Amino acid sequence: MNEQLLQYIWQFQYFNARSLATTDGTPVQVLNVGMLNRNQGPDFEHARIRIGSTLWAGSVELHLRTSDWDRHLHQHDRNYRKVILHVVYEDDVAGTAALPVVELKTLISRSLLHRYEGLLNARAFIPCEKMIATVPSIILNVWKSRLVAERLIRKGALIEDYLEVNHQHWEESFWWLLAKNFGLPVNADTFEAIAKSLPVTLLAKHKQRIQQLEALLLGQAGLLDGRFEDPYPVLLQREYRFLQKKYNLKPVAHPVHFLRMRPGSFPTVRLAQLAAVIASSAHLFSKIIREDSLDAVRAWFRVDANDFWHYHYTLNESSTMKVKSVGASMIDNIIINTIAPMLFAYGNVYGNDQLKEKAIRWLEETKPEKNSITKGFECLGAASQSAMDSQAFIELKTRYCDARKCLYCSAGNYLLKREK
Known about the structure:
It comes from Niabella pedocola. InterPro entries: DUF2851 (IPR021272). By secondary structure, the protein is an alpha/beta fold. The protein folds into three domains: 3-108, no CATH class; 109-165 and 340-420, no CATH class; 186-326, no CATH class. It is built from 17 helices and six strands. The protein has helices at 3-11, 68-71, 110-121, 137-165, 170-182, 184-197, 200-204, 210-220, 231-247, 267-279, 284-290, 294-301, 328-349, 353-364, 372-379, 387-401, 410-417; strands at 28-32, 35-36, 44-51, 54-65, 83-90, 101-103. The chain is elongated and about 90 Å long. The two termini are 20 Å apart. The mean pLDDT is 94.
């Protein structure tokens, strides 16, 4: 037993309420359990409890033991002056004589406690993997929708940080997040720093010359240092030195990483592709807000890097010819990790539910991610049909299952309260 479980049991009344009474035998009837308080003060506020013949309104405090009241020094805390009932798992001492005390130990189902202990101690991909198949699909589908919304809101926190720094500039924020995702997990921080060092207004001045865009991105990444034999890198180096002096630019301090990466994902290639996206677009986020067709949006990102990169993965070595296009999987990544979070955040800020619905709809129209988490759920019979599913499963696994927050999970709730 822990206090989280005790809160859960009280909140959903998972005990024998017909036998509820204070430790001195006075009958207790719960008319309203109150609202769970996650801030300082009693666990539940605005409760309505009938104790004997008297109706009380106020707060309810929960503890594992009665003696915890004094041990936590609540008797000296003004926040607890409105407590009308002290609910405990075990009444060990008469520590709150001024308050009526209810003990739940003998009123809670043993099977509920056993199931909860089993979930906490499970050593598996997810705690309920042996039981999740028994959860009705309607419960899982509603829960997945909520998980996706939670994930988008949480991703929106980064966007809010961007907006605070750049004075509510949504196009700039979109550029920063887009660049971060082009860097993939390995170089995300470096690409984000590069984007923050090159404002969209600066890039717009050079969007007609792809070489200058590449020079700015590669130069800020520190990739144009040293000597080059090929004329094109020499050109980029010369362009960067001129632009660096003109705009007083300083390369970012973050290093770029090539180790254990497929050549197609090298930072040089990704920066070249990013330059191509910039060259072929203008006011991209504004266009995305207005556009209803995801296919049209996909087309804006389906670009090829400059010709030099068809024969190169790095600035120093040539390779066999391969067009360095922004592929379908990368575009899916952009939709999932840039476009949908930005749309949802914009809709949240301006109270536009249609944009939030569009963000989720576009996730439903995007292929699911393939990773260890989605494969794990697939093995349990819960295959992802779209990016909405895969995002929901990632949120579920990382934010609930790994943290053993079964009490806050709809599937966990169903499994805990079922009779068998």
